[in-house]
Amino acid sequence: MGWSNDTDLQNIDCGILENHELLSTDIEALSSEECFKIGVCAYKNQNYSEAYAFLLSAHLKGYDKSASFQKFFAASKLAVDSINELARKNTYLKNQIQATHHLLGSSATLIENQAQPGDYQSSTQQDLLNYLFLVFAISGIFLAAKLLKNHKNVNTHNIFLAIFLFGVSIMLLELSVYWIQDFNYTPKEFFYHIHFFLWAPSLYLYIRKKLNITSNGSTLKITKHYGVFVFFCLLLLIHINITDGLNSPLSPSNNVAFIIQNAYLKFIHSTLYLIMLFRLYKEHRNSLNFSNKKWFVLAISFLAAIILIVLSRALFAEIPSFNYISKYIGAILLSLFIGVCAIMLFIQPEILTKTEALKPKPKVKYKNSGLTEDMIETLREQLLKLIENEKVYLDNTITLEKLAKSLNTDRYSLSQVINQEFGKNFYEFINDFRVQEAINIIEKNDYQIDLITDLIYESGFNNKVSFYKAFKKRKGMTPSQYIKEQKSEIIVNG
């Protein structure tokens, strides 16, 4: 994209704007358009801090009419972040030199500004943390290699876990190498920017394969999952090899960089996989054992936490310090995850590496039923109300058809409600209330029952065999034994 393609840029005359004029201009007194024009001129003169200040002011004042504004704004912010990072590195090196001279007994006059003890202590602590990140990163790479070596021929899902763990470790490795001053690692573009498009598909495929869920054309589907990652790999290669127009935010190189670094794209892509993972877990959680359930929750929670960090980086991109803080929070999270995986792999490797044997799902008996959830709930309430108010179970000639007629429904719908809501057939359901009625009669008569035969018909049963069978099934004893036991308890407690 050329400069001449934007009319707003054509109308900007930067010749009258010198550096001292930019510094002395009162931003509050300028309009949003004037702030934009001065910001563009400042950027062209490589005064990136002033450019960012004026462009930010234009943004806050509501300037959004120029298609090139976002490009200039993003480019100036990136330049300011780079300057701040370089300044931090220089401060660190200066403190290290000062500390070295101090240890060697050199005169303080050799250094213009002697390092303060607090600054040196802070730098040392930060350096130790960076080396700790490096250790975790290398450990994660070894863990991924161990998974591939020991388990790739046993269960293919471990390949996806290894890819996921390798991607996490490489990102932590790149961050730690960049932060550690001794490596002097300053890439044109960070490789970890495209790792987000590798993690989520790998974790999804790992859990899907671990659950032993297969589908037709699996190889083609796997390729599709990694298609976005491959696309961003190509973009990264293009960006690294483009050298023209580096001073222009509208150059092809900066356009590609804007896409690669876009946090919203990472957020949308990862969130889609998070939703699929959550649905997968919700569908099969009742079939998982306790250990695998905890592991799946941990892995999905880790991805969710990373997504939150990505979203926060997108929302607070205008705060320079947040860029640095969010990366450190992410590095700590990556280190913790690698540490947990290492512990699990050596203590309980089967949780990570073995395929989960899912319990078969029960067949849906009423799959083609015309009853909705609301209809079932309504019929259930009507049934219980009829049982409670009219005690239809005391009728020893009651049948499913007669009860359905009383409820103004058909026998099939009533049978479904009893089976589905109470887990019993019609006669088991009715006998529950009859046995409870017999117990109520026994208690009402202070356990003084002369003839068990009278109890049979009073509770709705029509023969001794069915009464004794139903009573013993629910109470574990015959009616006579129950009465005797209750009398004994009354004597003991009395």
TrEMBL record:
Residues 381-485 form the HTH araC/xylS-type domain. Keywords: DNA-binding, Membrane, Transcription, Transcription regulation, Transmembrane, Transmembrane helix. SUPFAM superfamilies: Homeodomain-like. Signal peptide: none annotated. It comes from Arenibacter nanhaiticus. The keyword Cytoplasm does not apply. One of its GO terms (molecular function) is sequence-specific DNA binding. It holds the Pfam family HTH_18. This is AraC-type DNA-binding protein. The chain crosses the membrane at residues 128-147, 159-178, 190-206, 226-243, 263-281, 295-316, 328-347. The keyword tRNA processing does not apply. It comes from the Bacteria. InterPro entries: Homeodomain-like_sf, HTH_AraC, HTH_AraC-typ_CS.
